[in-house]
Amino acid sequence: MRSLYKRQFVLMAGLVMISFALLGTAFITLSYQYSIREKQDAMERNANYVATFTGAIRTGGISIRDEAYQAYIASIARISDACIILTENDGEVVLASDSGTAQTKLSGLYLPQSVVSQVQQQGRYAGMSDLGGLFADRRYVAGTPIYVTTMNLLTGQSEQQQVGVAYVAAQASSITELWRAFTTIYFFTAVVVLCMAFVFSSVTSLKQTRPLKEIAEAARRFGHGEYDQRVSGYEDRRDEVGELAEAFNAMADSIAKSEARRSEFVANISHELKTPMTTIAGFSDGILDGTIPPEKEREALKTISSETRRLSRLVRRMLDLSRLQSAENVTAQEQFDVSEIMLRVLVSLEGKITDRGLDVDTNLPDNPVMVWGDPDAITQVCYNLLDNAIKFSNPGTAMGLGITTKGGKAYVSVRNTGQTIPPDELAMIFDRFHKSDKSRSVDREGVGLGLYIVKTILNNHKENISVTSQDGVTEFTFTLTLA
User: Fold this and answer.
1) Are 143 and 14 in the same domain?
2) What pLDDT does residue 218 have?
3) Which of 120, 223, 282, 418 has the fewest CB atoms found within 10 Å of its own CB?
């Protein structure tokens, strides 16, 4: 399997090399063409200048054999670093100047007919040629016809007459050397940049892949049950790797807490199941082996029946809790009157309220309070809160119900008068199987899941619930979104 480091390094190296290859090709081609064109343009200008100057000299009656003229042509050849050749119309060389001296050894030689024909047909010549062996190597040659002005005696008008051709030939080595210098500089720069790019790409790839490997190793260990595994050393990074490490640690903390809660849940459920099952088994065995006398068997059967119902409630609550926490549970969103639900639950608990001799103080709006949510789930919330309020109220006291609206929310409160819940207990009151009464004698019928179910339902609705307890007055308040 190819690692991410190798893939990224190869990709970066390939992109850099391709980019430099394309850039180099374009640069070399353009620079070479530009150098050639620049040299050709310069030679053509020089050829035009020599032809114009020679034509003017010839028109003035000065011969090209004149020493001053030849010295001047030699100066131009020296300055332009080229060879200047003057020929007749048929291509016969009459003067050649190179490196500042007039050459006569080329006199009498003829240029190739192809060169002469091109000048005659196109009025100029430009190209690479050794001019039929006049030069040992091929040179850049530019040629321009030489015209003199004559007077036509019959018509009395001046006419242009071609009397020869001026050629300027420059060695290709001057252009090649310049192009080679450009190419050498470019390749040296390219090699340095490529080396730097490879080093930086390698370092960057390693810097990116090393934390990924560490996170992968930590994930494998975490999957094997080492829940204390965390990724450290990337707290100061503000890039995606830092975010990934932070997300992994947050996930690990969440899973570790979930595992701790699961272990606590198993321990609590074991304790809750053990107590009624031990009681049922004890009384059943006592009846069967005769330990319990016949006159007490009825009381024992009542105890067995009570514990059986308690065990049934516990299992039912656990099933409800499992359904609420299921990923497939989707809270229905519809409009309903929360005041109506509160009153309906209150009526269903009228018998319990009467048995404890409680008064009910209601503070409900006259108009319906329409909210969004699952009416069945909110009914369960109201029932659990009211049932708790009745159960833990002192006999003969008053319990209160209230609904207020503010800022797009409905605030539903349930209040009772009984024992004050200690502040350290308030933080744990919504935990699973938590009971304020450690002896469990007060709430013998409860299983410690009612408030946890309330909290879970409201969390599914993205709502909040709070509790206060002071001077014997305990009040639960939860929110719902107004429709």
Assistant:
1) yes
2) 84
3) 223
pLDDT for res 442: 43
Per-residue model confidence as pLDDT tens digits over 403-432? 999 999 999 999 999 999 888 888 788 876
Residue for token digits 């007039």? 102
Shortest CA distance to 381 belongs to which of 334, 413, 427?
413
Mark whether 78 and 103 lie in a shared domain: yes
Q: Which residues contact 371 (CB under 8 A, 6 or more apart)?
A: 335, 336, 337, 338, 378, 410, 480, 481, 482, 483
CB 340 within 8 A of CB 377: no
Tell me, yes or no, if the pTM score tops 0.85. Answer: no
Residue 5 binned pLDDT confidence (cut-offs 50, 70, 90): low
Residue 230 to residues 217, 227, 253: CA-CA distances in angstroms?
Answer: 10, 8, 9
Instruction: Find the domain containing 390 and state its range.
Output: 334-481
Q: Which residues contact 277 (CB under 8 A, 6 or more apart)?
A: 307, 311
Residues forming beta bridges with residue 242, ordered by sequence position? none
Asked which of 312, 329, 346 is the last residue of a domain, the reply is: 329
- CA distances (Å), origin 141, targets 86, 167, 197, 437: 13, 7, 44, 112
Residue 289 burial (C-beta neighbours within 10 Å; 0-12, 13-18, 19+): exposed
pLDDT bracket for residue 436 (50, 70, 90)? low
Evaluate whether 87 touches 93 at the Cβ level (below 8 Å). Answer: yes
- Asked if residue 46 and residue 125 are part of one domain, the reply reads yes
Give Cα separations from 290 to 64, 87, 302 (angstroms): 153, 147, 17
Q: For 259-312, how does the pLDDT look when each residue is reduced to its tens digit (9 = 90+)?
A: 776 776 676 667 667 767 888 888 888 888 888 888 888 888 888 887 788 778
Shared domain for 310 and 291, answered yes or no, is yes
The reply to whether 463 falls in a domain is yes
Any residues with CB less than 8 A from the CB of 410 and at least 6 apart, and which?
338, 369, 371, 403, 404, 479, 480, 481, 482
C-alpha span between 351 and 386 (Å, rounded): 13
Tokens of 25: 């090709």
